[in-house]
Amino acid sequence: MIDMTQFTATRSINAPIDLVFKTVSDINNFSKAIPDIINVEFLSDVKSGIGTRFRETRLMNGKEAMTELEVTEFVENDHVRMVTDSHGAVWDSVFTVKRVDGHTELTLVMDARPHKFMQKMMIPMIKGMISKALEKDMDAVKTYCEK
Prior knowledge:
- Strands 1-7-6-5-4-3-2 form a seven-stranded antiparallel beta sheet, with helices on one face.
- The longest helix is centred in the last third of the chain and has 30 residues, at 117-146.
- The protein has helices at 17-25, 27-33, 117-146, and strands at residues 5-13, 37-42, 53-60, 63-75, 79-86, 89-100, 103-114.
- It is an alpha+beta fold.
- A hairpin with a 2-residue loop joins strand 3 and strand 4 (63-75).
- Helix 1 packs across helix 2 (27-33) and helix 1 (17-25) packs across helix 3.
- Helices cover 31% and strands 46% of the residues.
């Protein structure tokens, strides 16, 4: 049995599906949309799509936090999956886009799979903070795509 915590956030965005997808699937665009991302460094020759690896630095609670991510799935104008093994857990994030009633529906599902008992105990304790940060990111993507 896999111990896992899942976070889900959805936004209806008044923008074309390709713009929303390019915003969340291309780290250069995503970093423009998310004010808390202060630096991106590519770790692979691939800069977009499957195999893209990068280090993202963002402000979290006033402190800099670095995370290395890899794009493991990429279906244009459908979904992109980014995975990181960080802070004692595998964080598996999937952004999905689809057209719904003339808008683009963007959904983020993030699974956190902790490695050890202590991390299993910590994730529920920080679930509210993580959920709030994801909601903030989704609001930022919506604002960016609608301007």
